[in-house]
Amino acid sequence: MSKVGVSHASWDTYRDIEISFKVNGKEVKVKVKPYERLIDVLRNKLGLVSVKGGCGRGECGACVVIMNGKLIPTCLTLAVRADGSEVLTLEGIAPEGKLHAIQKALLDTYAMQCGFCFPGVIMTSKYLLDKNPNPSEDEIKEVLDGNLCRCGSYLRFVKAVKLASKYINEGKIFFDESEVMR
Amino acid sequence: MFRFDVYIPRDLRDALEALRIYGEEMLPIGGGTDLLVLYRQGLVKFKTLLDLWPLRSNLSYVKLEGGLVRLGALTTVEELESSELLKDKRFAGLKDACRTFATTFIRSLATVGGNVGVAHPLSDIAITLLTYDASVRLRSLDGERVIPLKNFYLDKRKTVKKPEELITEVFFSEPPNNASSVFAKLDRRVGHGMGYVAVGVYAELDNRLVKEVRIAFDSIGRPFPERALRTEDSLRGKELSEDNINRAIYEVLPKEMSRINDYRASAEYRIYLSQVLLKRALLEVGRRIGGE
Amino acid sequence: MSSVSEYYKIVEEVFEKYKDKEFLFVGRHSQRWDSVEKIKGKALYTADFARLYSKLVYVHSVRTKYAHALVKSIDTSEASKYPGVLKVITAKDIPGINDVGYVIPDQPLIADRKVRYVGDIVALVVAEDPLVAREAEELISVEYEPLPVITNPLDVVDLMTLKEKPHVLIHDERGSDILVHYKIRRGDIQKAMREADVKVEGVYKTPFQEHAYMEPEASIAIPEPDGSITVITSTQCPFDVRRAVAKVLGLTLNKVRIVVPAVGGGFGGKEDVANETAAKAALAAVLTDRPALAVHTREESIIGHSKRHPAIAWYRHAAKRDGTLLAVEANVVMDGGAYASLGPFVPWRATVHATGPYKVQSARVDVVRVYTNNVYAGAFRGFGNPQVIFAVERQIDLLAEELGMDPVELRLKNILRVGDETVHGQKLTEEHGVGLEEAVMKAVEASRWFELRREYAEIKGPVRKGIGIALFYHGNSIGVEGADYSSVTLIINRDGSISIRTGLTEFGQGAVWGLALIAAEILGVPPSYFKIENTDTSATPDAGPTVASRTTVMGGAATVVAAYKLRRRLNEVASHILGCDPDEVVIRAPEVYCSSDPSRKTKWVDVIEQSFWLGVPLQEFGYYRAPRASWDEETGQGAPYITYTFGAIVADVEVDIETGLVKVNKIYTAYDIGKVINRIGAELNAEGGAIQALGYALMEELIHDKDGRVSNPNLSTYYIPTIKDTPEIIPIWVEAKYRKGPLGAKGFGEPSFNAVAAAIANAVAHALRVNVTELPITPERVYMMLKSKQRY
Asked: Considering only residues 285 to 324 of chain C, which have any Cβ-Cβ distance to chain A shorter than 8 Å?
């Protein structure tokens, strides 16, 4: 009889692949399994838990990050594909102690509810603002169409992206964290 | 097995060699937006994935050359949508299909080749490409085959492509200046959806006269995208008038279309909606060609 | 003085003291305590803790192949030997009682004798890698004896007689598949029907609705050295989860600790499913002596947790020619799916509200809830009320049409006002706060009702427009369902910062922030001084379940009690420092001064420091139990709830009559929630509830095939509204204060959902001149309605 709490030996028969990539500006090297998804590596091996697992099927937008300038669902991305890439997650969008304009704008519009979709919403909004600093209401809705929010903060997302656009156009990209609590 | 290995090829030849060696135990993965969902549900089994992403340096492009529009199989929907080519009204239907294709983050992974290769009714790019009478270029170690897209599908999730072949390109003849296209679908929400039905229309008009028209649906009976050839015939050479359109959609289309009942919609509604969307698409393509 | 009357006295005293005051914090916009950590992605939700445990094991649920079958045998020997598998758990491995039922013990954690729906679990595979566990699942063989599958509740009971039909029982151990039957009997219904000038009748259907909170269920269990167990889990009701885990493991309650970190949405769905996930993780942790994670995939979440009850409702309304409602008759069958869940309570709330917020002289209402082999139904924002509101509000519109009256005028003729009796014979007084008429008037005015009602009726062409109204009332808290208590501990720390501890759980809408605002107001300390501790059964007091919109009204009352007592003590201390009367002490942290002489002042932190050295306790426990509700089982007469929230919704829609697609342009939500405490929370509820209800109205329905399998178990096939579906939402507040509530507040979480779908349905009916009898109003249903054009 096998001892409880100890698995049968040698289940871990798949090879490790070492990948190196830049995450939030830092070079990392990490061993991954061929079948591992990027979401699991970011969360479990690199501790970037802002990347949320909502559906595992690319249907909710909670796990999106910006990889090489593209918005991608990390639940449908094999970890090996990150090799040589640059990945940006919510943890990396503002320097320590600062908030990005879109984060500030989401607080200003009091959009926060459960917050589970927020990392995805913020990354999608940043992706949009990077490409188009002056998005129209329709463009905002078009790009955020895939980010599901069941608490229903949608109207505030639209307002926040517009407000962030205004901040960015005024040259205000980062805000001190201490300024935001009122 | 839910664990698998991944083969990362150096180049196309390396990839094709791997496919030959591993045979049916290996599946190629492009964007993965379809395959990884099927895998998760336990609906596909494989031992190794062949990662096609390294081949994107050669197989991701949108070109117009020598009278041919050529789309690299690994071009993402996002790349296609933002290409120079799609600013041209002759490709307006492709633009529609890209714009309404899933979500921002799926468009950045899903590829043209993948959409064509899944052989599933819900493949909007493939539906639109059918209206351009596109062809699929397949490569294997034995060389190259070109298959017209209209002959490419055998059944749901079944194509003429052999396991050792890869789709490398989809191409079609450059449309004349008096051409344009439309893609339309409709579902129960305003936000993104699969579409109860989806329709693509391509037309060339001389004044109001239909010189050429091609119509494709997500399904006209069999479970993959197909052209509505009889409906096309009924319009070819005629004026694109409301009367002729009505005749086509009410008298001809129902004769060649059958639809399924499932949890999403009844066959009756699907046929009805196919008629409504086709009518709208035909009127819209006329407006687009007319420069409205 | 008995302590029971003490807390009522305090809450009423505080209400009187503040009722005409300008508030500093209550009712104003404020940034909730957790918004910065969440905006930075630092907030930890249950599954985020997994990486902290290096010896973590994964718990994979092996679910049944059949929706209804006897389990003859199960062989796990091959799977147990699979490399990487630590343990395969079946029902016989459970040390305690194999049950996770929320209200009644009808739901095994792991099926032993039979399976009753597709989410039932037959074994758990515990492995070091979740994929290994899935691989091992394929090696488990289960021998089933399939039984007939019932997916239609009308195969269990007849809608008109409500008699049980012969069928193979799903819960044979109970001897009947009718779980509950509630009634209202008032007046002489036969006489009223005979005397009526007009009658309208119809059958109304509403679907299964999925909560689709963005965070799927998750639990991590950690075995402790003393044989106890800690479970981190995503739940609304940690004290109920503790009970379930203790029961399954055979432990005493003090050996089970439930910790609730950030929760990614609940909406009622996380009331009872955590009983299951926590018990699964705990069982695996105990049997392997390692930390164990049970996290549901989205598909498991959809097939494996409770849903909104579908209802089939037959209604008959009778009225006089002048529009006076005479009688309502109703038979309602609610599909409860395979297990009871909150099923003993949901139909009761449906029954109480079954005639809507109207004066009804005679009524006969029968509501039954039956078992089927569908996914089980339980709590979901609204809790049985939206189903009957849809039926009632469609009926009222039909009646208006029949009488040639405007729907608003007909409603105004019959709505509940101060001095009226509800259908249960409960007299509504000034004390309850009854702001329905004001809500109707404000919604009508803001939406330009009378103008658009006429204007839209004239529209021709492919796109039609419609405007519709629906009203509701919603009993506050849990009424006679159970012990309706709440508790809060306020702790002032040495630096003047304040911790709030309560068993009421924050699961997204920020309701507990209202407690901080109440405490801030009473203590005179800004909300930024407050932190709300995560709920932890070993640290926070049991405050009852976080359900039934009870956080603000019940938790708020407990907070009033605690804050008031603290404030009285602090005033004493400050009066010694300042040399003025305790009643003259003004706290405006960081300053404290005398009202008679503001130059006599000190610092908040100094008052706290003084209190510390003087031995004045800086913690206070507040407890509140709602006044007793009453209910006669045979007649439905009594006073079922302490008070009611009221609302009027107007929806402005357009319909593409060629495709059938409905688009909502505007929703006006006028709510009487008493005193608005947490304004941002109220606004977010008004918006979020409306969007969820828009989904309910237009797109959402979980579908079972004839074998009981779910046809749309993921977010690409089960549609919820996206940002593009979201209309303009115009919130309007009416503050008819409930004087026994905290500062006059009433509950709001659930009411934000209640009448929106009914208003949309009425607007579609207006746009198309058709009778809408079924939700959701999909393009195909619109097509079918137009095709048959059932003109009413």
From this structure: 287-290, 295, 297-298
Which residues in chain B are contacts of A64 at CB distance < 8 A? Answer: 105
Nearest to C624 by CA among C491, C745, C474: C745
> Least CB-CB distance to B3: which of C131, C722, C776?
C131
Closest CA to C262 of A151, A40, A23: A151
Architecture category of domain C47-147+217-295 in CATH: Alpha-Beta Complex (3.90)
- The domain in which residue B10 lies consists of 5-52
Q: Which CATH number fits domain A98-179: 1.10.150.120, 3.10.20.30, 2.60.40.3080, 3.40.50.11540?
A: 1.10.150.120
Interface predicted TM-score of the whole assembly (ipTM), two decimals: 0.97
Do both B63 and B166 map to the same domain? yes
The pLDDT > 70 percentage for chain C reads 99
Q: Which residue has tokens 């919109």?
A: C549
At C1, the pLDDT band (50, 70, 90 cuts) reads very low
The pTM is what?
A: 0.98
Spatial separation of the C-alpha atoms in residues C134 and C123, rounded to whole Å: 12
Rg (CA), chain C: 27
* Per-residue tokens: C613: 């050295």
CB contact under 8 A, A12 and C84: yes
Question: Three-state secondary structure along C603-634?
Answer: EHHHHHHHHHHHCCCCEEEEEEECCCCEECCC
Selected for mutation to probe chain B from A12, A81, A131 (highest B CB count within 10 Å) is A81
Average of per-residue pLDDT across C115-140: 97
Report the SS3 class of residue C377. Answer: strand
How far is the C-alpha of C114 from the C-alpha of C170, rounded, in Å?
Answer: 9
C463 touches chain B (CB under 8 A): no
At the topology level of CATH, where does A17-92 sit? Ubiquitin-like (UB roll) (3.10.20)
Q: How far is B272 from chain A (nearest CA, A)?
A: 27
Structure tokens at A32: 């991954």
Contact B253, B213 (CB under 8 A): no
Chain C positions in Cβ-Cβ contact with residue B196 (cut-off 8 Å):
779-780
C106 CB burial (10 A radius; 0-12, 13-18, 19+): buried
Nearest Cα of chain A lies from the Cα of C86 at a distance, in angstroms, of 5
CATH numeric code, C307-479+631-788: 3.30.365.10
Which residues are registered as beta bridge partners of C178? Answer: C370
Query: DSSP per residue over chain A, as a string?
Result: -PPTT-PPS----SPPEEEEEEETTEEEEEEE-TT-BHHHIIIIIT--TTS--S-SSSSS-TTEEEETTEEEEGGGSBGGGGTT-EEE-GGGSS-TTEEEHHHHHHHHTT--SS-TTHHHHHHHHHHHHHH-SS--HHHHHHHHTT---SS--HHHHHHHHHHHHHHHHTT--EEEGGGT--
Give the 3-state secondary structure of residue B7: strand
Residues for chain C: how many in total? Answer: 792
Q: Is B6–A76 a contact, with Cβ atoms under 8 angstroms apart?
A: no
A103-122 residues touching B, CB cutoff 8 A: none
Q: Tokens for C63? A: 């679910």
- The angle that helices C238-249 and C273-288 make with each other, rounded to 10 degrees, is 40
**Digits of tens for pLDDT over chain B (292 positions)?**
899 999 999 999 999 999 999 999 999 999 999 999 999 999 999 999 999 999 999 999 999 999 999 999 999 999 999 999 999 999 999 999 999 999 999 999 999 999 999 999 999 999 999 999 999 999 999 999 999 999 999 999 999 999 999 999 999 999 999 999 999 999 999 999 999 999 999 999 999 999 999 999 999 999 999 999 999 999 999 999 999 999 999 999 999 999 999 999 999 999 999 999 999 999 999 999 998 7
Contacts of A80 in chain B (CB under 8 A): 6, 8, 51
Q: Supply A80's token pair.
A: 């090996």
